[in-house]
Amino acid sequence: MAFGDRVIKLNDYLLTEACKKEDGRCKKEKSGRIPIQLLSVANLSNQLLRAGTSIGANNAEATNAISKADFKSKSFIALKEARESLYWIDMLHRNNYIDNIQYKSIYNDCEELVKILVSRCKKLNEGNKK
Fold it and tell me: Can you state the percent helix, strand and coil of the chain, rounding each to 5?
């Protein structure tokens, strides 16, 4: 859950910083659309927001699974979302929306989640071979 919290805070931070660069001119247009100058950072951070918070949601579902198959399925989905989060973190860094310190911090946290989930999923697969 802590990673999801970090992702939410990062999303808010990125949008606030992008707005500051636009001298505060970042209110949604009357049509409800995000201003064109904020689309890239908004889209990238939204993708990370979706994937990063999905890890915890799927892990919670796995914890309360109704069957072993359900537990396995939700665990693998959580792993996929964690790997996707790494991708979006890389994209934010490569496009200079987050600096090296921010990148290393959140990337390392996400990488730890991937390692934990890989270990869990390997054990789940080994259980099927018996």
Answer: 80, 0, 20
In which element (H, E) is residue 52 found? Answer: helix 39-63
For residue 111, what are its two tokens? Answer: 């990488």
How many folded domains does the chain comprise?
Answer: 1
As given in the structure block, the two tokens for residue 38 are 């904020």
Alpha-carbon distance of 83 to 115, in angstroms, equals 10
- Choose between 130 and 125: higher pLDDT: 125
Report the CATH number at residue 92: 1.20.1440.60
Checking if the pLDDT of 23 tops 60, the result is yes
Query: pLDDT over 90 for what percent of the chain?
Result: 75
For residue 76, give its domain range.
2-24+33-129
Please tell me the distance from the alpha carbon of residue 122 to that of residue 119, in angstroms, as a whole number: 5
